[in-house]
Amino acid sequence: MKKITPSTMLLALFLTVAMTFTSLAQELMVEVPFSTQVQSSSQIIEGKVISKTSFWDDNHHNIYTINTIEIYKVFKGQVLAETLELITPGGSVDNDSEVVTPSLSLNIGDIGVFILHNNDIQISNGTSQNKFKPFASSQGFYKYDLSSNTVFNPFVNKQGITNTFYNDITALTNNSNITEVSDFDAQDIYNTNIANRSVAGSEQITSFSPTTLNGGVRDLLTINGVGFGATQGTVNFRDANFGGSQYFTALDTQVISWNDTQIVVEVPSRAGTGDIQVVTSTSITVTSSGTLTVFYSQINPGNTTNAFTSQHFDVDGNGGYTWQMETGFDANAAANASFVRAFDTWVCTTGINWEIGAVTTVDEIAADNINIIRFDIGTELPEGVLGRCTSRFGSCSNPSSPGGVDVVVTELDIVFNDVFTGSLAVLSWEFGPGTATGFEVDFESVAVHELGHGHQLAHIINTGEVMHFSIANGQNSRDLGSSDLAGANDIMIRNINSPVCGTGAMTASLCSTLGVDEVSLSDNISIYPNPAKNNLNILATSNLQLELATIFDVRGRQVITKDLNSSNSLNTIDVSQLQAGVYFIKIDLDTISTTKKFIVE
Questions:
Q1: H or E element: which one contains 97?
Q2: Long-range CB contacts (within 8 A, 24+) of 522-527
Q3: pTM higher than 0.85, yes or no?
Q4: H-helix or E-strand spanning residue 179
Q5: Are strands 83-89 and 131-134 parallel, antiparallel or unpaired?
Q6: Do residues 70 and 82 touch, judged by C-beta distance below 8 A?
Q7: What are the tens digits of pLDDT across the range 50-60?
Q8: Is residue 305 a contact partner of residue 336, using CB atoms and an 8 Å limit?
Q9: If you ran DSSP here, which 8-state letter would residue 468 be given?
């Protein structure tokens, strides 16, 4: 196995088959009005993604993916050809890969309307076709669900593709003449799907278990039902990157087993809380009546066949990563202080070994071995994007790991929107320490969220948690919730205990700003899931060394006692033998304790 050194920050991909990492999209955005998107665009087309290839830009600073779109219809702009090329951030070239959050992430086969503007990224590779960028990042793609005749982006879910959505576009372009480039009729496809469902009718999901799981950590969901068929189809989860307005399909390799009455599938990274779907090999779609709760989720760099967990390592020789503020950002005292508060929230709670080092004059996001913190320049960030985290990854071969690969984080960069313009000009940053109100956007909340992506947490669908996909003006979400803590601490266990790819393991940060003398013990301990069925997890901040847990029933009888592992912030207690009902757990630390209520279902 080859050794990975911080000086190169590059890792070879050692697979016997070619790997192509794809970028993932985790959005923290504010909504850009549809009218603004249409009026500001240079080209609006309906089409289908038919291929994807990634390249470095001409300056070798960042990787971009060129998505080739087969054009069905043109609503605005010129008919350039039968295809066009759409550039999105992130991807994989040879030994290097990037995940940019947020950014539009497209899959081959995606169909919908693309709202585009002219490309300003210098990429000489690819074809000589005209290249475009999506307007307002992932808000500029309105994806079709042809089984339900709906169209959606992260903020929109509209019924009726041809009879409603088309009219919405033409009303704003003042042009009812839609240019047909290729034969495609969304209404006909929907009608065919309806006919297929009426002929079948017997397929159904009768149950699934567990009802609470985590995404991107290979948790297994068992789906029971009737009529799934003997040939593997697909399993769909509510897409957390889109707030659950659409579905995300698990990879074929994440389907562990499939027969006519039962499916076992890994919960993917982008899965969010909501119902689930099974699509049979004969294109029959069945939806569950119950809700799967995805408690936390982690980013999975991956390719078209596999998804991989990742971890941090000792990059800077001091056990972790050193970040640097760009000169202008550092000089903005309010933004500087707000970011440091967000930074300390993660460092002092999960123990991730991050520190802020010397100021840098570098003012760009690039593969340059600098973990930078900066504001964007002009309209560098897409409209509606508040902040963006770029994670750079490397990998090494490990036959014992799923997919045969271990993945590590080699560099992290964060950029924030410097000023709100256009339709968002009414908004302004609230740097704190006071909270945001009215049309203010809370900078510390955005920083905590983007740093969460740097911690390698993915989105969930829970407006009360830091890692929810979007934030509203006047909303403040600075404090880590139980799911944020649980997902981050799970990553920290890997970071500290599992060195990979010849790297040195991360060492936990020693942060003295948080202690039981300053805040209550209860505020720094979480229990989950609640209700519990099989296991109850106790999660403490990294600087608390818990000693004993005692569970009592509602009559005050002691039913379980367990010594806790003081070297680990996450402890698990088996409650599967307890009868359904209400219980209390008393957790001891030195001479103090806290008691919490939970339910066994």
A1: strand 96-101
A2: 522/594, 522/596, 525/587, 525/594, 525/596, 526/481, 526/482, 526/485, 526/486, 527/482, 527/585, 527/596, 527/598
A3: no
A4: strand 179-180
A5: parallel
A6: yes
A7: 999 999 999 99
A8: no
A9: B
351: phi > 0 → left, psi -120 to 50 → alpha, else beta; which?
left
User: Rounded to the nearest 10 degrees, how much is the dihedral formed by the CA atoms of 321, 327, 331, 333?
Assistant: -20
- Rg of the chain taking only CA atoms, in angstroms: 24
- The separation between the first and the last C-alpha atoms of the chain, rounded to the nearest angstrom, is 47
Beta bridge partners of 442: 430
Q: What are phi and psi of 256, to 5 degrees?
A: -75, -40
Angstrom distances, CA of residue 492 to CA of 161, 217, 351, 455, 569: 45, 13, 8, 9, 9
Q: Which of 338, 380, 306, 277 is nearest to 62 (CA)?
A: 380
Residue located via tokens 């307005």:
245
Closest CA to 5 of 532, 504, 451, 554: 504
Work out the average pLDDT over 69-77.
Answer: 97
CB 464 within 8 A of CB 453: no
CB under 8 A, 24+ apart: contacts of 463-468: 467/296, 467/297, 468/243
Cβ atoms within 10 Å of 192's Cβ, excluding its own: 13
Q: In this structure, what token pair is assigned to residue 248? A: 């995300």
Q: Around Cβ 149, how many Cβ atoms within 10 Å?
A: 22
Distance in angstroms (rounded) separating the CA atoms of residues 408 and 391: 10
Nearest in space to 389 (alpha carbons), one of 101, 97, 88, 104? 101
> Percent of the chain beyond pLDDT 70?
90
Give the burial class of 173: count Cβ atoms within 10 A of its Cβ; 0-12 exposed, 13-18 middle, 19 or more buried. Answer: middle
Distance CA 381, CA 136 (A): 9
Answer for the pair 307, 217: CB distance below 8 angstroms, yes or no.
no
Cα-based torsion angle of the residue sequence 309, 498, 352, 360 in order, rounded to the nearest 10 degrees: -80
> Which residue's entry shows tokens 């089984």?
147
Predicted confidence (pLDDT) per residue in 468-523, tens digit: 888 888 999 999 888 888 888 889 889 988 889 999 999 988 663 334 443 467 77
Tokens 């990634």 appear where?
54
Burial of 230 (0-12, 13-18, 19+ CB in 10 A): exposed
Contacts of 199 (CB under 8 A, 6+ apart): none
Distance CA 351, CA 494 (A): 13
pLDDT bin (cut points 50, 70, 90) of residue 25 is very low
